[in-house]
Design a protein that fits this description.
47% of the residues lie in helices and 12% in strands. The protein has helices spanning 7-10, 18-24, 27-39, 45-61, 101-105, 165-185, 209-213, 216-221, 246-261, 287-307, 352-367, 369-375, 400-413, 467-488, 494-508, 521-530, 538-541, 548-556, 562-615, 621-652, 658-683, 696-701; strands at 64-70, 82-84, 106-107, 127-131, 138-142, 145-156, 194-200, 202-208, 266-271, 277-282, 285-286, 310-313, 329-335, 397-398, 424-425, 435-436, 448-450, 455-457.
Length: 703
């Protein structure tokens, strides 16, 4: 780390790329692999053996000693088991380095301890990892050495998906099939494949590792459970896009180098709104590759931060009072020959195919707003959504002035005759050129915004996999395309039928379109009048997975079985309960063992001061008042701690499921907030030398 390099020379050097495959595989084998990637044809074992041997030789040249099927179970993070390439020694004690096609294609990790939501009994341990050949293998270098990582799907012995990747690949097949039907209807006979492409922006915080180690709440939960605001937060907006400090710049440089070697096209880096908050954004990739790359990004941020004496916080709300972190999921549909189905062109009102795609998406989002909301549900995200710093918990679509005007024309008159132009942006400075202005502004308060040639789903939490939201987006749009194609394929006059369908969809689903301020109370009231769901918490959102329409949707397109959906509901409730339980127990531990003893020591020193001053015949009014205030808050803290201890114990005794999760939300969370209130007030009173942990000011301004 730290040396200068040429990006073009190192980009993808640790990836088994298309170029590497072309160079190292026999032509017949390479063509067979390409057919598997592009058309889904089965790969025979003999061909797999040749690919595995070439991959092994390439990885060993990179220093690899082990390989791993790298997969994404329902834990929210990745999983891996390392196996070396060595075989048993022969009679003379020599070993060979081998890697077979069978080992490449299929692995068998123990599945018993991963979340399965009842799909697998605890004693049933067998699970399989299957090579996702559409996502390239890579060699990762870390303290363990060099490991060949093979992206895989993970399923049970009985075939159910136990991971994030399998449903994503299923949903990509579904939208490809239905989008090709759309293209054929509009006369496109050349495009062979439609792929959802994704560009996820990643926000994160950096704090000093020594200070991190002094905060048990950060260690156990990833967020601060106590903490008074410093005199300055983000009020001046001076951190946002500000000059990057040298320590952070050095970290970012090393992150970029690591990612570029792994073929991750890290493009944008900058300071975000909150102090100590930053963002990294890659260039678009096909959805399953983007999901893998985002996991690599999160792992790399953490690893490189540690090497720089810092800790990377990916929690959605590590600090109260300043902005939390999200992950904007930019989504589009692109053909194999470079056509973006979400490109409106210069005159959207004349682009019938675009208007068809657009109104189908409006229908999809309106019909399944609850599923989209659930796909971004996370205990940490509950602190952001609807909190005037992130999109509201209400799903709506921002189209901008130009497209909303086109839609309005269609709804009112049945015909769109013009599109608003962007015009010229005049700066008023003679030495600056006049700039071409976009036809519409942007809206940062919208959860689902059209931004020129893509939709930006802004709800996703910063530490979550982007698989779930893209599974939902792919599937709901596939359904809308399918229903529209079913109708249009039977039409006698296609041109008339498609125009009627666009007008009908625009009219029936206009309630989902909102260009205003999503943070306002007026919008909450207006959304209720429109009948839009307002799912304020993860606990409220989870049931969306098993409604009749959700089961029908995912079953129709082969993305989830009913059993797989029910398992995910169980896993989600359990994950929420466990997360809040850990936070509550951490608060109890910190308050009992650190905060209350520290405050008692402080009150004792105050009492000693009052006594000594009074004995000297001097009035101790200030000290007495301070002692009284501190003692009162200490009493409130002790009372709140007892209440939190009680409700947490009660919650832990409940049977896992919806009732337990809801109790954590409705009883434990308020008790946690009640404990935090007096503690944060005490932090503003107690001598800093006595307070047992670094303050917010120490954490976010001293990085």
């Amino acid at each position: 780390m730290g040396e200068y390099f040429n990006v073009a020379d190192i980009f993808g050097e640790d990836v088994f790329t298309e170029r590497v495959m072309r160079e190292r595989l026999p032509k017949k084998v390479y063509r067979a692999l390409r057919q598997t990637i592009e058309e889904g044809k089965e790969l025979d074992l003999a061909t797999a053996d040749v690919i595995a041997s070439a991959m092994k030789d390439w990885a060993i040249e990179k220093g690899a000693t082990h390989y791993s099927h790298w997969f994404q179970p329902l834990t929210g993070v990745t999983a891996e088991k390392h196996d070396s390439f060595i075989t048993a020694p022969d009679a003379e004690g020599r070993i060979l380095l081998e890697f077979s096609g069978k080992e490449l294609i299929k692995g068998e990790p123990d599945a018993s301890s991963f979340p399965s939501g009842g799909l697998r009994a605890t004693f049933e341990a067998r699970g399989y990892t299957a090579w996702d050949c559409t996502s390239p293998a890579f060699v990762r270098h870390d303290a363990a050495g060099a490991i060949l990582c093979i992206p895989t799907a993970f399923c049970s012995y009985t075939g159910e998906a136990l991971d994030q990747k399998t449903p994503l690949l299923r949903s990509m097949e579904a939208i490809n099939t239905q989008a090709l039907r759309v293209l054929r209807l509009f006369g496109n006979t050349t495009s062979k494949k439609v792929t959802p492409c994704v560009g996820p922006e990643q926000e994160y915080f950096l704090v000093d590792e020594k200070k991190f180690r002094q905060r048990k709440d950060l260690i156990f939960t990833g967020r601060t459970l106590f903490g008074a605001m410093p005199p300055k937060g983000q009020e001046l907006d001076d951190h946002y896009f500000g000059a990057i400090r040298q320590r952070i710049a050095s970290f970012m440089k090393d992150v970029n180098e690591e990612l570029w070697k792994l073929g991750v096209s890290a493009k944008t880096q900058h300071n975000e709104a909150a102090p100590a908050q930053h963002e990294l954004a890659p260039i678009y990739a096909q959805a399953n590759v983007a999901v893998d790359h985002n996991q690599i990004i999160m792992q790399t941020l953490k690893r490189v931060a540690s090497a720089h004496g810092m800790k990377c916080l990916l929690h959605e709300k590590p600090f109260a009072g300043v902005n939390g972190s999200g992950k904007h999921n930019n989504w589009s549909l692109t053909t194999d020959d470079g056509i973006n189905l979400l490109d409106p062109g210069k005159t959207p009102h004349e682009n019938v195919q675009f208007l068809f795609v657009l109104t189908c998406i409006l229908k999809a989002v309106d019909r399944h707003a609850d599923l989209l909301r659930e796909s971004a549900a996370d205990p940490g995200n509950d602190h952001r959504l609807g909190a005037d710093e992130a999109p509201p918990a209400i799903i709506s679509v921002f189209l901008g002035e130009q497209l909303e005007d086109v839609l309005t024309q269609l709804i009112r008159t049945g015909t769109a005759t013009h599109s608003l132009n962007g015009g010229v942006l005049e700066t008023g400075v003679k030495t600056l050129p006049n700039l071409a202005k976009d036809a519409t502004d942007r809206n940062r308060t919208s959860p689902f915004a059209f931004t020129g040639n893509k939709f930006e789903f802004r709800m996703v939490g910063s530490r979550d996999s982007i698989a779930a939201p893209n599974v939902v987006l792919n599937t709901i749009v596939a359904e809308a395309f399918s229903e529209a194609c079913d109708e249009l394929e039977q039409a006698e006059n296609f041109d008339e039928a498609v125009h009627d369908l666009i007008k009908r969809y625009a009219r029936e689903h206009q309630r989902i379109v909102f260009n205003g301020n999503g943070y306002s109370e007026e919008w909450v009231e207006e959304a209720a009048r429109r009948g839009l769901p307002n799912l304020k918490s993860m606990v409220d959102a989870i049931p969306a997975l098993v409604t009749d329409k959700a089961v029908r949707l995912f079953g129709t397109f082969g993305v989830f079985t009913k059993a797989e959906l029910e398992s995910r509901v169980e896993i989600q409730y359990e994950a929420y309960a466990k997360a809040i339980n850990i936070e509550a127990r951490a608060m109890i531990d910190i308050a009992s063992k650190q905060i209350i003893p520290a405050v008692i020591r402080y009150t004792k020193s105050l009492a000693d001061t009052v006594n000594s001053v009074t004995a000297a015949g001097v009035e101790a009014a200030v000290q007495t008042e301070l002692l009284k205030e501190t003692s009162t808050l200490l009493g409130e803290t002790k009372e709140a701690l007892a209440k939190l201890t009680q409700v947490t114990a009660q919650a832990a005794q409940m049977e896992a499921g919806q009732a337990q999760a809801r109790y954590y939300y409705e009883a434990v969370m308020p008790a946690m907030n009640a404990l935090r209130t007096p503690v944060d007030e005490l932090e503003m009173i107690v001598d800093k030398d006595v307070w047992p942990m670094p303050s917010y000011g120490d954490l976010i301004f001293e990085v």
